[in-house]
Amino acid sequence: MGRMTELPTKGGFSFDLCTRNDMLLKNGLQMPPFRKTGTTIVGLVFQDGVVLGADTRATEGPIVADKNCEKIHFMAPNIYCCGAGTAADTEAVTDMVSSQLQLHRYATGRESRVVTALTLLKSHLFSYQGHVSAALVLGGFDVTGPHLHTVYPHGSTDTLPFATMGSGSLAAMSVFESKYREGLTREEGIELVAEAICAGIFNDLGSGSNVDVCVITEGKTEYLRNYQLPNPRTYISSKGYTFVKGQTEVLSTKITSIQPKVEAVEGGDAMEE
Amino acid sequence: MALRGDWMYENNGGTCVAIAGIDYCVVAADTRLSVGYNILTRDHSKICSLADKVVLASSGFQGDIRALHKNLAARHLLYQHQHNKQMSCPAMGQLLSNTLYYKRFFPYYAFNVLGGLDNEGKGCVFTYDAVGSYERVGYSTQGSGSSLIMPVLDNQLKSPSPLLLPARDAVTPLSETEAVDLVKDVFASATERDIYTGDKLEIVVINASGIKREYLELRKD
């Protein structure tokens, strides 16, 4: 019998290894943890557009993996997206939709719309049934005006005047619920977003370090990286640390000299015709 | 784990450090009390002054730690009544070990570091696990930030191995100010990377003149 015709590879996850994974877990294997961003991300609509905000701490369990990461991702010149959840997932999904939007802009010859990004994100996340752990706050300004949406890992979305996501979302939402009103000015909007992120930074252990802000208005986007730095290091030893030779114990030394190169013979290359 | 009906413990986080010097002992712990991703309070002391020359720092489950400190304080009072003197650090060390092992099959979820001056006035640090295994050392750390701090102390304090013969002193030759400076720096570093460590640092120094307390602000995020 000849070989069977190869089936074309399907897209999506291959679940072939699930039984083998189950067996390994039963035998006591520890799966490596994902890096989650344990985050506070927020967005609000003000009179001229939207303001997005995020903290900058990425955690791996109880340890801070990155003290100053970027959680506000570029989607289009007029659309930005904050991401909470598994760092690889938020990064991958925003990069992918950003590329798709760019191709779409070339095809249509128009500025991208927020609902386009929204539909692309939600259909991708829904098709992965929640396994892509990305919780997003999507905001932008297009021909139809300012828009703010939240996207959940399973693919549902909400359209809101103000929104928070991540482990610090309750702390941030408490600030928004007290102080938000319609028709905020740009300065008021930025200040309120910064205050909400700070609430997450100081009251949620999964969030911390600095405040990033992004202001999107008609025809103009300002990405204010590290808008506030409310957590400087409190103490640094003036003595410093010196590492003298011998502080690290050398157990043994072996020196191997490099062999001299063998000269290649000129002419007569076997590969040539 | 918390979903099980029978899980009796909770980890309130935090880190403790103790360093023994020639004629002093530094015991320090942060003051943050947390549960899960929340902060319960920024100003909770994990350090208990048990006797004139003995200080205990514990991290872990505060419910058990409170009970343990109360237990030891009561036993110390009894000792004073019976022997007409304060307990020495090595004596308290043994008492703590026995108290912990007494609950071997329902342990105190407490990770302890005992610091003080021994009978000769030299710095004395004992480190424990949850069920009472202990050892006299030159320095130690316990708690959520311990794996971040221990390698730095190993590098800077370079105590001789307890396996070497003849037995050499494990105490550091650093001065009191240098040791306190090291503790502050090491905690500031641990605060950067451990989410459960922060808010404020309480530093207790025990020397011949008594017990002195100092505070340092740490990052609050």
Automatic annotation (TrEMBL), chain A:
GO terms for biological process: proteolysis involved in protein catabolic process. One of its GO terms (molecular function) is threonine-type endopeptidase activity. The active site is at T39. It is found in: Cytoplasm; Nucleus. Pfam families: Proteasome. InterPro entries: Ntn_hydrolases_N (IPR029055), Pept_T1A_subB (IPR000243), Proteasome_bsu_CS (IPR016050), Proteasome_sua/b (IPR001353), Proteasome_suB-type (IPR023333). It catalyses: Cleavage of peptide bonds with very broad specificity. Its main location: cytoplasm. Keywords: Cytoplasm, Hydrolase, Nucleus, Protease, Proteasome, Threonine protease. Component of the proteasome complex. Component of the proteasome, a multicatalytic proteinase complex which is characterized by its ability to cleave peptides with Arg, Phe, Tyr, Leu, and Glu adjacent to the leaving group at neutral or slightly basic pH. The proteasome has an ATP-dependent proteolytic activity. This is Proteasome subunit beta.
UniProtKB/TrEMBL annotation, chain B:
PROSITE patterns: PROTEASOME_BETA_1, PROTEASOME_BETA_2. One of its GO terms (cellular component) is cytoplasm. InterPro entries: Ntn_hydrolases_N (IPR029055), Proteasome_bsu_CS (IPR016050), Proteasome_sua/b (IPR001353), Proteasome_suB-type (IPR023333). Gene3D superfamilies: Glutamine Phosphoribosylpyrophosphate, subunit 1, domain 1. It is found in: Cytoplasm; Nucleus. Keywords: Cytoplasm, Nucleus, Proteasome. SUPFAM superfamilies: N-terminal nucleophile aminohydrolases (Ntn hydrolases). Pfam families: Proteasome. GO terms for biological process: proteolysis involved in protein catabolic process. Belongs to the peptidase T1B family. Non-catalytic component of the proteasome, a multicatalytic proteinase complex which is characterized by its ability to cleave peptides with Arg, Phe, Tyr, Leu, and Glu adjacent to the leaving group at neutral or slightly basic pH. The proteasome has an ATP-dependent proteolytic activity. Component of the proteasome, a multicatalytic proteinase complex which is characterized by its ability to cleave peptides with Arg, Phe, Tyr, Leu, and Glu adjacent to the leaving group at neutral or slightly basic pH. The proteasome has an ATP-dependent proteolytic activity. The 26S proteasome consists of a 20S proteasome core and two 19S regulatory subunits. The 20S proteasome core is composed of 28 subunits that are arranged in four stacked rings, resulting in a barrel-shaped structure. The two end rings are each formed by seven alpha subunits, and the two central rings are each formed by seven beta subunits. The catalytic chamber with the active sites is on the inside of the barrel. Component of the proteasome complex. This is Proteasome subunit beta. It comes from Rhynchospora pubera. The lineage of its organism: Eukaryota, Viridiplantae, Streptophyta, Embryophyta, Tracheophyta.
